[in-house]
Amino acid sequence: MTAHPFALRGHARSAVVLALVMVAGSALTSAGAVPVASESGSLAHSAPAVGLPATSVATPGSQALLPGQSSSVTAEVPSSGTAPYSWQWLYSTDDGHSYEVATIAQCDTPSGFGAPAGAVETCDFQATGATPPGTYDFELRVRDSATEPESVTLSALSAITVERASGLARASDAGAPKFDTDPQEDCTGTCDTANWFGGTGGSGALVISTASADELLVLEITDSGQTGADLSTADISDTGGSTWDLEPAHEWNGFGRNQYIFYALDPAAGSDSVTIDTAAGTGTDATTATAVLSAFSGVDTSAPIAAEGTFEQGMGMQATASVTTSVAPTTILGIVSTTNGATAFTPTASPAFTEAGTINDGAATASFVEYYADTATGTYTSEPTWTGFARWGAVAIAIQGVSPLSVTVSPTTTVLDQGQSVTITATATGGTGT
After folding, report:
1. Are 321 and 394 in contact (CB under 8 A)?
2. Which end of the chain, N or C, is less packed with Cβ atoms under 10 Å?
3. pTM of the prediction?
4. What digits encode the pLDDT tens for the residues 39-58?
């Protein structure tokens, strides 16, 4: 099949392109096929094709953002092809000449699967201080469930331009910390004291890639059959040179079985490898252990942990743990350690938590972490469920975000006689920047 050009009347340039990738099942409405974009790296830009539904258009119109502001691009999955559909956002910073696979640095949810025909998919773009200035064009690539792929593209005028910030921070800089990424690993047998998860018996090194500087790394470790002293910050290191802190450890299943929560601010964006090395420190080892390493952007770097709730434990198919926060905005973490009988974890339904990571070592332990972002103070409860009967220990933690920018002027009222003077001061709090 041959591709046909498609022109949008009344516009001079195509700033956002939706790449709609279909496969055989029901016939595509376009007259020609276009090569499928590659799964990673730079993507060749293909000519638009005709015949797709008019609703499959990216929105909104072009707009400029400063760091701390956000915008959304949406697209509707077409009805041609065979449902359900998987999808992937792509982005370009060179006027659409080449495209890259979007990550969480460009879209809160860069990909997904199981979408029905007509579903509206959204790319929420958050500009941060680490976002390079420039114009960002987007494509949505959609794949159906048939066996022989075809692809078509549809152009629409829409772009997001990130401008360089200057001067005072804006109130829009404020917001609850945002989830970035989450590797999970385990070790079985006896965890290698030189490298619990990346050494002998480990499933892999704890390697994380952050999108921006000063993201908060949260490392949860659940161990079973620990011998020696408890883990300490002396046992934790990373290639980014972060300074680690430790929330109080808790026995979740009797003596020698502890839940640990370490955290640190990662000074730079990019790849970072975290190592648990007890050989030169406590000498501690464990029969089995699981770990979830999460990262969150937009935290208050002066006080990243706002509050920790009471550690809870029990037996069954659901955990419950609460935390009360007197500051806002915050992101609430629900952190659960269980025996390995717990599988298929389901996040808390109300409020609607989202899973950050889960792993089961298949021998003795499992770890589960979920999060919920809000801009109000109050008490929040994490209540995830799972399949199977298990002993559990759980705690909820509040991560503090950046408070809104506010300015206090003093004095607010004064009366002066001729020849008198007064000094007026203005104090800015919250926000980010200078």
Report:
1. yes
2. C
3. 0.57
4. 333 343 333 333 333 334 44
